[in-house]
Amino acid sequence: MNAARAEFARKGLRGARIEDITAACGLSKGAFYLHFPSKEALFGEVLARFEAHLNEVNGRRMAAVERHFLGQGVMGSRDRLEHSERYRRFVELETAFDLESLELMWSYRDVVSVLVSGSQGTPFESLLWRMTEAQVERVAGDFRRMQEAGAADQEMDAKLFASVIVGAYVLLSQRMVHLTEKPDMSAWAYTLQRLCEGGTLPRFDAPAPVSEPVVSRAKRPTTSQRRPPARAKTRHTPRKSP
Q1: Which architecture characterizes domain 44-203 according to CATH?
Q2: Nearest Cα to 3, choosing from 42, 60, 47?
Q3: Which of 193, 184, 161, 169 lies closest to 95 in space, CA to CA?
Q4: Which of 28, 94, 182, 194 is the most buried (most CB within 10 A)?
Q5: Where are the alpha helices (DSSP H) in 73-200?
Q6: Taking the complete model, does pTM exceed 0.90, yes or no?
Q7: How far apart are the C-alpha atoms of 83 and 184, rounded to whole Å?
Q8: What is the tens place of the pLDDT at every residue in 175-197?
Q9: Do residues 124 and 43 lie in contact, with contact meaning Cβ atoms separated by under 8 Å?
Q10: Taking the domains of the chain in order of start, what are their residue ranges?
Q11: How many CB atoms lie within 10 A of CB 214?
C-alpha cells in the first residue's frame, strides 16, 4: 500500500501502473491480484483508512467539545472578552485537535494530492468535495452553537465560515506535498486558532470609535444665557461735508 501511495502521488490514479507498484515492493504483477482486483480497489482501501482515521479524530473532537459544554457551559460574550477559565480551556481543546488534524493531513498529504489533482476521470474525482462538505457541516454546526450563546458574531454566515476553515486545511495539505521538511505544526495550529478567535468576536466587542467630546444637553446653556454672536468690526469712514 505504501508503494501504491507513492506511485499514485507521482503519476495520478490513471497514470499509475500495477507492474510499477509491485516492482517497487518486490512482488510479481500476478501477486497483486491475490489481494486487489484493480488499482482502483487498492486506492479505495487507502482512502478507507484515511477516512477511518479522519472520522475517528472528528468523533473524539465532537465528544470532547460536548463534554466541555455539558460540564462548563457554552461560552458567552463575557467569556471571550475576559478570557475566562472555561474559554481558555475550550481554546486549548480546539488547538490540540487542530494539531492532531494537521498531523493526520501530513501523514496522508499524498492521498489528498491525488484526490485534488490526480483522480480526474475516475470514480474518485469528486470524493474530496463530498468529504469536505461533511466537514463543513460539522464546523458550521459548532459555530452556530457559539452564535446562539452570543460568543460569536451572529451576523456571520456559519457555512461560509466553515468553508473557509475546511478550505484552509485542503490548501495546507497541498502545500505539505511540496515541502521537503515537516513544518512546525504547533505554530500552524496556533495560527488557525488565532484567526478563528480574532475574526469571529461579537461585533459589540470591538472598541467604539473615538469621537469629539459632546456637551450633554443638561449642561448646555439656555437660549437666554447664550451670549449673542459678536458683530464683525467694520472700519468707519467719515463722510465728507459738502
Answers
A1: Orthogonal Bundle (1.10)
A2: 42
A3: 193
A4: 94
A5: 77-82, 85-107, 109-117, 127-148, 158-177, 185-199
A6: no
A7: 26
A8: 898 888 999 999 999 999 888 87
A9: yes
A10: 44-203
A11: 7
